[in-house]
Design goal:
This protein has about 150 residues and is mainly alpha-helical. The protein is built from 7 helices and no strands. Helix 1 crosses helix 3, helix 2 packs antiparallel against helix 6 and helix 6 packs antiparallel against helix 7.
């Protein structure tokens, strides 16, 4: 079973940043008001803290969850902003997810697949949380699916 000790600090940081990066990216592309944003945040937090699937990466995901839950989404957004457009910010957030995917390449395929599916489920939960999945959200989900090799 893979656990925290199997990764460098940089890889672990990428693994724990990815769920929040996905949540934030989905929020940026969504067309919503304050109530929808709250629904999306709640759905994303639930998807992070209660993964839908059970499998060989359960222990690893259980170790990622507390660190991911402690992340500051506002800090992550500022890190990518720099006076730029939401699309550029989303691209930067997806680059963060790509680093997590790279870190997962070193673990058994079944575990990597489960973690990557969990990441996707976070994005799907956010997209579905408010009045259905909008075209921009579906486009991002499609990009995410490709990035995660699902």
């Amino acid at each position: 079973m893979t656990d925290r000790s199997d990764f460098t600090d940089e890889q672990w940081h990428a693994l724990t940043d990815a769920p929040v990066a996905i949540m934030l990216a989905m929020a940026l592309v969504g067309e919503h008001g304050p109530i929808s944003m709250m629904k999306e945040s709640a759905a994303g937090a639930k998807a992070i803290s209660r993964p839908a699937h059970s499998g060989p990466a359960d222990q690893l995901i259980a170790q990622i969850i507390p660190d991911a839950a402690d992340k500051e989404a506002r800090h992550d957004a500022k890190q990518h902003m720099g006076g730029t457009t939401p699309n550029v910010v989303v691209d930067g957030l997806l680059e963060d997810v790509s680093k997590a995917v790279d870190a997962l390449a070193a673990i058994p395929a079944e575990e990597s697949a489960q973690v990557r599916q969990w990441y996707y489920d976070v994005g799907a939960a956010v997209a579905a949380a408010s009045k259905g999945v909008k075209p921009a959200e579906q486009e991002l989900l499609d990009r995410l699916k490709g990035l995660l090799s699902l």
